[in-house]
Amino acid sequence: MKKTMLALTAVGALASGSAWAQSAGDWVVGAGWLHLAPQDSSKPLTLTAPVRSVMTGSGASINDSDTLGLSAVYFIDSHWAVEGVLGIPPKFKLDGTGTLGRVGELGEARQWSPTILGKYYFNEGNAAFRPFVGLGATYVWYSDIELTPGLQGALGSQLRQRPLSTSTTAKLDSSFAPVLNAGVSYQIDKHWGVSFSVSYIPLKTKAKLTTTTLTGLPIATSEARLKLNPIVTYLSATYRF
Predict the structure, then answer these.
(1) N or C terminus of the chain with fewer C-beta within 10 Å?
(2) CA 37, CA 25: separation in Å to the nearest integer?
(3) Torsion over CA: 74, 78, 81, 85 (sign)
(4) How does the average pLDDT of the chain come out, rounded?
(5) Tens of pLDDT along 106-144?
(6) Contact by Cβ (8 Å): 190, 19
(7) Bridge-partner residues for 177, per DSSP?
(8) Are the CB atoms for 76 and 24 separated by under 8 Å?
(9) Is 149 helix (H, G, I), strand (E, B) or coil?
(10) pLDDT digits (tens, 9 = 90+) for 85-107
(11) Rounded distance, CA 27 to CA 35, Å?
């Protein structure tokens, strides 16, 4: 009798594991906390026209940002999967450093960076705990770019313009960037689970600034090169279909 009960328990465990197994055609969607931590550096702000000059010692630093992340994973088989990740576009604040440190906040912008990853999951499909690695790409662009009055004034001084006599707008270059990813997932039951991952994105952009008179006449252009290189952590609750 005891042997029969043990056999039935083992069969039940195997059946449960099989029911939880991740296999070809499965979808896993997730939502949770997405944290972006730029490992930033910058080149000095450079006036490119009407004459080229460098604002020596100037620089910028980008603050960390948090947002809601959303993801969807499609399993090609029990090990290989494709994942799409996006988030509500986070807002980053840019602070002056070096000779721009006295200005404080220079501006802010929203970053859009939908990402696609190819992923490999270790352990078997019926394992609750599964480490994974991933490699993919993201396309990054920016919106809602605003410059502070402090930066506006610093640029006006560089151009030897009277205060409040000019206005400056900015654009940030869009670009593709590779994404390196690693993490772990844990399946709590047939449907629900949790996932945690860390990604590194070697990312850089160029800020192009245009200064005009209050009547809209362009009088100068400037640029600043930024390396963001964010480390992105993503903690999510997941649901498997």
Answers:
(1) N
(2) 34
(3) positive
(4) 88
(5) 999 999 999 999 999 999 999 999 999 999 999 999 999
(6) yes
(7) 138
(8) yes
(9) helix
(10) 999 999 999 999 998 898 899 99
(11) 24
Q: What is the spatial distance between Cα 225 and Cα 113, in angstroms, rounded to a whole number?
A: 19
Tell me the backbone φ, ψ of residue 8, rounded to 5 degrees.
Answer: -65, -40
- The amino acid at residue 16 is S
- The DSSP bridge partners found for residue 140 are 175
Residues in contact with 164: Cβ distance below 8 Å, sequence separation at least 6, in sequence order: 156
Q: Helix and strand tally (H, E) in the chain?
A: 2, 17
List, as one string, the DSSP characters of 24-66: TT-EEEEEEEEEEE---EEPPPEEEESS-EE-TTEEEEE--EE
Distance CA 54, CA 166 (A): 19
User: Residue 7 is encoded by which pair of tokens?
Assistant: 């056999």
Supply the pTM of this predicted model. 0.86
Q: If you search the block for the tokens 């000019």, which residue do you land on?
A: 166
pLDDT over 80 (residue 3): no
Residues 213, 206: Cα–Cα separation, whole Å:
23
What distance lies between CA 50 and its chain's CA centroid?
35
